[in-house]
């Protein structure tokens, strides 16, 4: 399944391709899988974290809910970021914030991040948290 391509302006001012959400306002499982894999790989790379400026990114960003269920908290944040309709919606963390959150989750999980478990948790959030038509 090919996703439609759109262009976005990166940090350097160059136009780069990005993924556009399908007409039904949903993100495909493949996109979630790629996104989670990328975030986890970045989180596991000291060089990537240095380049993204991850240190200090989460100051005043993580609430106490993280302590009760880190996996659910991280999955919710990633799902929220993936489903944000535009960059103007700042109710979600930046890429460096998501990477920092995965690193924090790694610390709570004895230094291990299971990408498949995280991906499945993100997918669960994206399918379970459908807006109710009656609301």
Please report the number of helical segments: 6
Total domain modules: 1
- The SS-based structural class is mainly alpha
Main sheet characteristics: 2 strands, antiparallel
Query: In angstroms, what separates the terminal alpha carbons?
Result: 33 Å
pLDDT < 50 runs, ≥5 residues? 1-21
Number of strands: 2
**Rough shape?**
globular
What quaternary form is this?
single chain
Report on the architecture of this protein.
α1 packs across α5, α4 packs antiparallel against α5 and α4 packs across α6. The protein has a two-stranded antiparallel ribbon with strand order 1-2. It has six helices and two strands; from the N terminus they run ββαααααα. The protein has one domain.
Topology:
Elements: E1 5-9, E2 15-19, H1 29-44, H2 46-52, H3 65-68, H4 70-83, H5 95-108, H6 115-128
Antiparallel strand pairs: 1-2
Helix pairs in contact: 1-5, 1-6, 4-5, 4-6
Primary descriptors:
mainly alpha; 51% helix; 135 residues; two-stranded antiparallel ribbon; globular
Give a quick rundown of the structure.
This protein has 135 residues and is mainly alpha-helical. It has helices at residues 29-44, 46-52, 65-68, 70-83, 95-108, 115-128, and strands spanning 5-9, 15-19.
